[in-house]
Structures are given as structure tokens and as C-alpha cells.
């Protein structure tokens, strides 16, 4: 098994072999201790044990109890070696720094100091009784050898401080990386959200607030807006019967929230201590995002929560403002398109139809007075006018259809997105389509794009896939989607367990929710080192029947 060595691992390994070399050299050249033919086998045994313990510590680094046992065994062997090779004068008495460094860097504070004190007490006790001279006293021996304990104690203290800083840095990096993953996923959801998703954006934000802060309860309360419908206030973690009191208390203090621009710490009788952050667009006040604080939270954690809520508040404000601008823009586009169609109809088709109606009326009034040839000529003129009107109408219809006019289609946008994803990440993405999306409702377009984008993004980010296959089957009453990759895979049971405990990612949960919201079936299969496969089947028309 290949284990990646850290800088700390390399430093400890270098110290082990360097200290072994120096102590062995001192052991050989000193005249005290056992004869030379005994010293050489002892050094050879040490040379064999050094790499054995080094490998053991690396392979057992995630098993604290096994590391404790290994450290205790090595410390006992070094203790026995130091006592048997001269006691106070043994060059191996400082070789005990090797297991002590391991204990200080990866084991608990109490175990490390217990190991150090126990080593010094046993070593000093045995050495005192076996190697003391007639004129030596206990105090004098302690004073002479106290520097040994001092050197070991200072080394342990320094190593524990270094280990603490390393763990804090690793925790900060892990939290930052996790936050960035959540932010990317949240941004993706916001970018591809539909009108239905927008009205429930509060639920998305509260779920991510729980993810980012690691707290159990979060809320997004929306103030009333006279200019149109507001998204629904949502919460995560509170019981349904507690939700009414929660939003009721927030509503009572609405005037206070409107005046605030900074984070607010507020305590409510029925909801506990809350950290609230006002959400403001450039034009109006939206509401507040909040989390319920735990009693044991320190100042540093509260600063972290404030940073996360400020980010979510800004993202929410930008999202809501973009949505309102998008709605206004769509309305203007529709209005302009209606005016354009009306002008085209009036200038071309309408004029032709008016001419046909007028000619037909005139023919009706004077047909009895016309000769057969004159009547045939008038009918031919009306026929030509009707043919011209039909041609103009067909041209107008074709210009309105992106499919017939060669404009951008939904499938073209999906293909373009996957091609960009492939180029940016150097991943092969094979996109296959069976059928036509022309009659597929817009709701399905939006949901399928989100699912395809989420599935391929997960395969690249988390699965480290090099090849992805996307197969889309479009039929009048059924849509099928299959996404397969050759990535590292994962344990699906562990994924759903973490999802239920709110400790896993939301990507799979989002795809499952989107599929089921359309009345479809979501199937996931994966295993470690065997890639991942997602199969989705969605009946077309279920949403329309529900909303009818």
C-alpha cells in the first residue's frame, strides 16, 4: 500500500535514522558497556527494528489504539536497552525521543506525558539502584540527570504545539474546501433554477446554511412585498408546530430587521438564541437569514457563522435581484415579440387576407353578369392571393421557430455546455440523443439540464472520471436519461446514510428531488473503483395533470 509521506513524516524518519547512527557510533567507540562482539548484534537488531516501527506507524496512523501499543512496545525496548547498556551513561537514553515524538504528534496529551514521566521514573529508578556510587545521593543524581528530563519535556512541548498548529491548519483547509464545494453546488442550483425553484429558494438556502455552519437549525424569513409574490419562508431543523411561532416572532420585529444592516444576535422565548443576517437587494429589504446558536459556541465559531451568513445573504440578494430582472426582461421580450408579430401580420398576411375577402365579396355581387372566362379569371386572382398569403404566413411561422429557422435549441445548449465542460476539464464526454425535444415542456428542459449538469459535474469533481457517457432518450410520453462514468466510485449505502444525517453532499439529493418532482424514477449504482451509473425515467405529462 502506497502511503503519501508528509513533511512531518520525512522529518521524523530522518531524525530516527540520524539519531540511530549517532547513538550507535557513540555506543561502539565508548569503552564502557558490554564487549564489542555484543555491541555489534545489538546495533544490527536496532537497524532492523527502526524501519519496522517506521512502517508500522505510517500504516497504523488512523488507528490510535494500535499506535499507542506500538509506541509503548518501542519505549519499553528502548528503556530496557538503555538500562542494560550503562544506565545514566548509556548513549541510547536519548533515543527514546523517537517514540515520544510519535506520541506527541499523533496521540493524546495525557498519554504522551504519562509515557514521558513513566519512562524517566523507571529509567532513573533502575539506574539509581544498579549504577549508583557510594558517594552519590538521590538529590545529586537527580540534579546531574535532570537535563535529560528537561530535554525530553521541551521536545514534547514543542512537538505538541507544532501538532496543534498542524491540526488547526488541516481543519481550516478542510472546512474551506468543503465550503467551496458547497458554494459551487449552491451557485449551480441558483444558476439553473426555474420559477418553481425560485419560490422555494428559502429551503435551498437554509439547507446550505446548515451545511456550512454545521449547526442543526437555520431559517430564511421573507418579509411581505406589495409589488408581487415573495418566495416562501422556510426553515430547517425546527418541528412544523414550532415553525409558526418562529416566523410569528420574526414578523413581530419586522420593523427592527428593516433598519438593521449588520448581523443581529437575538433571543426568543420559544426559539432560543438566534444569529440573524438581514438580506437586502439594491431596491428593497427582502428578509433575514438565521441560525440557532448552541450554548457552548465560542467567539471564534460565531465569527465563522457571521461570515457564512453574510455570504449567503449577499448570494440570496443577488439571486433574487437577478430573478426579478429576468422576469422583467422576459416580459419585455414577450411584449416586443408580440408587437413584432402583430406588425408583420398587419403588413403582410392581414393585407393579403383583406384583399381576398374584398375580391370574394365583389365576385359574389357581380358573378351573374360575368362571362365564364371573366369568372375564371377572377377566381384565379383570388387563388393567387390566397397562395401568396399562405406563403407569407408560413415564412412568419418559420421565423418564430428556433428549430425551423436554425436558431439555438435546447439540445444544442446542452451539447454546448457538455463540450465546454469537456474542454475545461480535459474529460471525454460522449453525448447521445434519441428522439426530438421539440414538444417537451419547458419544465422538463430546465430539470433535465440541471440533472445532466449536476451528474457530469459530480463525475468530474468527486469521481475523477476521464470518460463520461450521457444518453438521452426523448419520446412523446417518456424521457430516459443515463449518465455513466469511469471514476473512482463510492459506497452508495454510506452516501444515503450521510444524506439522511445531513452530513453528505446535496448533489445526489438534488437530482433525486428533481426527478421525483416530475413523477420520475431515480436509480443510482456505484461501487469503489468501478465508476458510477445514474438511470432516470420520467413520464411526460404528470406535472400538467397535477396542475390541471
TrEMBL record:
Reaction catalyzed: ATP + protein L-histidine = ADP + protein N-phospho-L-histidine
Annotated EC: 2.7.13.3
Primary location: cytoplasm
Places the protein is found: Cytoplasm
Cofactor: [4Fe-4S] cluster
Keywords: 4Fe-4S, ATP-binding, Cytoplasm, Iron, Iron-sulfur, Kinase, Membrane, Metal-binding, Nucleotide-binding, Transferase, Transmembrane, Transmembrane helix, Two-component regulatory system
SMART domains attached to this UniProt entry: HATPase_c
Species assigned in the record: Paenibacillus apii
Principal EC category: transferase
Entry function: Member of the two-component regulatory system NreB/NreC involved in the control of dissimilatory nitrate/nitrite reduction in response to oxygen. NreB functions as a direct oxygen sensor histidine kinase which is autophosphorylated, in the absence of oxygen, probably at the conserved histidine residue, and transfers its phosphate group probably to a conserved aspartate residue of NreC. NreB/NreC activates the expression of the nitrate (narGHJI) and nitrite (nir) reductase operons, as well as the putative nitrate transporter gene narT.
Record flagged with keyword 4Fe-4S: yes
Single GO term (MF): 4 iron, 4 sulfur cluster binding
Protein name stated in the entry: Oxygen sensor histidine kinase NreB
GO cellular component, as recorded: cytoplasm; membrane
Domain Histidine kinase: 448-542
Ubl conjugation listed as a keyword: no
Transmembrane segments: 12-30, 36-55, 67-88, 108-131, 138-162
Highest taxon, organism lineage: Bacteria
Amino acid at each position: 500500500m502506497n502511503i503519501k509521506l508528509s513533511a512531518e513524516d520525512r522529518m521524523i524518519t530522518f531524525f530516527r535514522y540520524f539519531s540511530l547512527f549517532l547513538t550507535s557510533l557513540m555506543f561502539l567507540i565508548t569503552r564502557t558497556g558490554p564487549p564489542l562482539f555484543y555491541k555489534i548484534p545489538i546495533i544490527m537488531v536496532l537497524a532492523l527494528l527502526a524501519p519496522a516501527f517506521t512502517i508500522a506507524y505510517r500504516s497504523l496512523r488512523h488507528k490510535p489504539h494500535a499506535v499507542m501499543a506500538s509506541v509503548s512496545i518501542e519505549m519499553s525496548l528502548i528503556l530496557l536497552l538503555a538500562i542494560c547498556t550503562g544506565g545514566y551513561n548509556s548513549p541510547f537514553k536519548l533515543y527514546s525521543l523517537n517514540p515520544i515524538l510519535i506520541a506527541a504528534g499523533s496521540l493524546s496529551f495525557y498519554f504522551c506525558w504519562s509515557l514521558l514521566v513513566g519512562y524517566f521514573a523507571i529509567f532513573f529508578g533502575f539506574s539509581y539502584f544498579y549504577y549508583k556510587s557510594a558517594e552519590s545521593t538521590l538529590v545529586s543524581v537527580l540534579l546531574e540527570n535532570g537535563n535529560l528530563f528537561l530535554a525530553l519535556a521541551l521536545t514534547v512541548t514543542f512537538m505538541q504545539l507544532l501538532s496543534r498548529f498542524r491540526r488547526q491548519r488541516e481543519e481550516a483547509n478542510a472546512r474551506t474546501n468543503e465550503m467551496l464545494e458547497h458554494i459551487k453546488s449552491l451557485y449551480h442550483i441558483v444558476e439553473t433554477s426555474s420559477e418553481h425553484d425560485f419560490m422555494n429558494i428559502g429551503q435551498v438556502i437554509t439547507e446550505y446554511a446548515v451545511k456550512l455552519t454545521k449547526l442543526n437549525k437555520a431559517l430564511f424569513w421573507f418579509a411581505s412585498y406589495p409589488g408581487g409574490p415573495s418566495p416562501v419562508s422556510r426553515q430547517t431543523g425546527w418541528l412544523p408546530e414550532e415553525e409558526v411561532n418562529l416566523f410569528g416572532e420574526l414578523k413581530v420585529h419586522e420593523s427592527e430587521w428593516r433598519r438593521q444592516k449588520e448581523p443581529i444576535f437575538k433571543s426568543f422565548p420559544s426559539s432560543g438564541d438566534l444569529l440573524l443576517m438581514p438580506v437586502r437587494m439594491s431596491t428593497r429589504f427582502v428578509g433575514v437569514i438565521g441560525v440557532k446558536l448552541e450554548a457552548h459556541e465560542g467567539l471564534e465559531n460565531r465569527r465563522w457563522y457571521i461570515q457564512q451568513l453574510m455570504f449567503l445573504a449577499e448570494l440570496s440578494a443577488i439571486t433574487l435581484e437577478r430573478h426579478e430582472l429576468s422576469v422583467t426582461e422576459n416580459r419585455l421580450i414577450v411584449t416586443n415579440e408580440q408587437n413584432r408579430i402583430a406588425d408583420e401580420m398587419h403588413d403582410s398576411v392581414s393585407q393579403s387576407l383583406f384583399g381576398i375577402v374584398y375580391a370574394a365579396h365583389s365576385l359574389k355581387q357581380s358573378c351573374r353578369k360575368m362571362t365564364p372566362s371573366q369568372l375564371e379569371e377572377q377566381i384565379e386572382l383570388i387563388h393567387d392571393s390566397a397562395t401568396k398569403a399562405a406563403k407569407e404566413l408560413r415564412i412568419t411561422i418559420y421565423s418564430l421557430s428556433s428549430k425551423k429557422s436554425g436558431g439555438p435549441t435546447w439540445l444544442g445548449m446542452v451539447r454546448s455546455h457538455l463540450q465546454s465542460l469537456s474542454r475545461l476539464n480535459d474529460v471525454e464526454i460522449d453525448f447521445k440523443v434519441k428522439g426530438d425535444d421539440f414538444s417537451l415542456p419547458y419544465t422538463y428542459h430546465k430539470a433535465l439540464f440541471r440533472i445532466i449538469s449536476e451528474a457530469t459535474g459530480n463525475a468530474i469533481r468527486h469521481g475523477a472520471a476521464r470518460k463520461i457517457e450521457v444518453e438521452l432518450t426523448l419520446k412523446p410520453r417518456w424521457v430516459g436519461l443515463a449518465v455513466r462514468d469511469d471514476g473512482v466510485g463510492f459506497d452508495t449505502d454510506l452516501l444515503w446514510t450521510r444524506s439522511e444525517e445531513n452530513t453528505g453532499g446535496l448533489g445526489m439529493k438534488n437530482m433525486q428531488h428533481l426527478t421525483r418532482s416530475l413523477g420520475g424514477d431515480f436509480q443510482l449504482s456505484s461501487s469503489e473503483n468501478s465508476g458510477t451509473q445514474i438511470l432516470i425515467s420520467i413520464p411526460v405529462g404528470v406535472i400538467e395533470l397535477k396542475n390541471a
